[in-house]
UniProtKB/TrEMBL annotation:
Belongs to the PAL/histidase family. GO terms for molecular function: histidine ammonia-lyase activity. This is Histidine ammonia-lyase. It is an enzyme of class 4 (lyase). There is a cross-link at A141-G143 (5-imidazolinone (Ala-Gly)). Gene3D superfamilies: Fumarase/aspartase (Central domain) (1.20.200.10), Fumarase/aspartase (N-terminal domain) (1.10.275.10). Its EC number is 4.3.1.3.
Amino acid sequence: MLTLMPGEVTLEQLENLWRTSAAARLDPSTASAIATSAARIASAAKGEDAVYGVNTGFGKLSSVRIASDDTATLQRNLILSHCCGVGDPLPVETTRLMMALKLLSLGRGASGVRPEIIALIEGMLEHGVTPVVPEQGSVGASGDLAPLAHMAAVMIGEGEAVFEGQRQSGVDALAAAGLSPVMLGAKEGLALINGTQFSTALALVGLFSAMTCLRTAIVTGAMSTDAIMGSTAPTRAEIHSLRGHAGQIEVAKAMRELLDGSEIRESHREGDDRVQDPYCIRCQPQVTGAALDLLRFAGQTLVTEANAVTDNPLVLSDGTIVSGGNFHAEPVAFAADQIALAVAEIGAIAQRRIALMVDPALSFGLPPFLTPQAGLNSGLMIAEVTTAALMSENKHLAAPCSVDSTPTSANQEDHVSMAAHGARRLGLMTRNLAVILGVEALCGAQGIEFRTPLATSASLARTIEVLRRHVETMGADRYLAPDLEKARKLVEDSTLVTAAGLGVAV
């Protein structure tokens, strides 16, 4: 059970929650602020002054006053009418992260929900009741309205949820877990669906996956460098300190350590007439390092958003209830676009390293397509083509989403962020990148093995040893698709990074 302190949760805690599907609850110290804001909303609901979403309609209908007797109906109708999501459901782990983010937002004590709402979300996380939340339907502006409505629907006994691996009605899932639906009070439906938690959860998952790929790219890039007998001189510390970018300095250091002790490199320090290696080898610290800096910057944005209050209206510290625009997900949209750019570039330079290794005109003595008896065998020819296809697809997907907007809700919501689009595409992009890096690992290992009896470094030798437990060295041609899938999984679960002993933090 993870205890979350709103305003102080770290990226490491959020990644742990996502990867382990751990239960989560708010720190007990949040109870007082939550109760105080709930009391203020309850008072406003009975008052004469119009307060948006408390005793009025929503969006373009905010001028319509709602009688206090209709408060529960207003909030229930809001949830049901907003359950308009379409497409495949979010993975369970991502939905649970989204629910934890909603807890963090409500836990700041500015949303006006009762403790019962908090307790039910905590109970659903503890007992494994996960709402079925469709991926499509949010424009990332008035909050992620449709996706979050599907979460809230289960809380009122509607919609669908997954419990113990079975998809069933929300009310049945709650009952099976020993939980009961709630009747929503004033503003509670609005507080649940108004916010950026859907977009932020998807962007965080994209960030975590991108960082895993980046760490692997440092390892596979070092393997490629040794496979083509590339120079380690471009990783010298002074080169990178003269430029000063932190990510570049860190990647160069990691590569020096990974390649330290390689007999392959030492064997051709003398008599090698190459003056410079191609950019895909020589500029790895500059490109991968820049991606590292960008991912870290996006991470700072997303951890701020994860700890933020993003619904509307808000109960401020002086007791006033004020409408604002914290639900607008522009920061998340920008962060998602930055992650997409980094993912595309990591894959682009990795794909060029693969192309280098399979090309006998450029690979410094490696056989064509890294296969014995080339001609009879095609080797890794089409594996390289697959990486080219995925690299190109990621380039297309990296086009910014944040520059798009379209007016919605009868022009009341006339500028939107498209953060949900930007964050949702990261899952496909990081999967594509994991395949590219998996193929690079196969090519790099094959190339290093062709350098026998010269040995690679101890770090890379361990990496290849672990890789070979899952994928055998390629001799004669064989059915390759399962090997590519195994290599992808070794990237996604950080197996190669662990084997190499690499330590690069987000």
